[in-house]
Amino acid sequence: MNKLKKEFYLRHDVIMIARELLGKLLVTRINNKLTSGIITETEAYNGIIDKASHAYGNRRTKRTEVMYHQGGVAYVYLCYGIHSLFNVVTNEENIPHAVLIRGIMPAEGKGYMKQRIGTKKDFAKIISGPGNVSKVLGIHYSVSGLSLLGNNIWIEDAEQVADKNVMTTPRIGVDYAGDDALLPYRFLINTQVLHP
Q: 105: domain CATH number?
């Protein structure tokens, strides 16, 4: 196990961190069930200056307060009253940067993942959509604020994905953010280079 260290999360450039998270292994041990997936898609949220961020304009609520914690914790929020969306908090305390994990390639615990989504069929090689990622990994919004240095949710290091195998696009579903919706803060790995 080569768990990412605190220093990885404390860096100031959330866009660079979002890019570097591609190819790393997101691991959960929930109810003693170990599951993991290679991170294939991320989105960066650049804090108080980013109109797409929950913390835009230094907004602080009971839900968003976790974003202001020191980097290296999970920010998990409920979307549409249904989906738990998992984010990695980065930067120093009181700088609310976060990276949304939008896609994974299942690695370990595929049987548990199938149970969680209620299927016996083989599911896609890539789990796409942040709600689906949390569901198959057993991540619930109640764990928001949990340290990523512990033994329930963590990220393991892996070799950096080459630039030629990464696509960069605007983020999804943030049209309300005006010009900030066009920022190239979404990163996708070319899954042809991955091996399940």
A: 3.10.300.10
Q: Is 115 exposed, middle or buried (0-12, 13-18, 19+ CB in 10 A)?
A: middle
* Structural domain that includes position 72: 6-191
Whole-number Å distance between alpha carbons of 83 and 76: 10
Count H helices, E strands: the chain?
4, 9
**How many residues are present in the chain?**
196
Question: Would you say 164 and 20 are in contact if contact means Cβ atoms under 8 Å apart?
Answer: no
Is this structure's pTM higher than 0.85? yes
Residue pLDDT tens, the chain, 196 long = 799 999 999 999 999 999 999 999 999 999 999 999 999 999 999 999 999 999 999 999 999 999 999 999 999 999 877 899 999 999 999 999 999 999 999 999 999 999 998 876 676 688 999 999 999 999 999 999 999 999 999 999 999 999 999 999 999 999 999 999 999 999 999 866 665 4
196 assigned to some structural domain: no
Q: Give the count of domains, the chain.
A: 1
Q: Is the dihedral of CA 8, 138, 23, 173 positive or negative?
A: negative
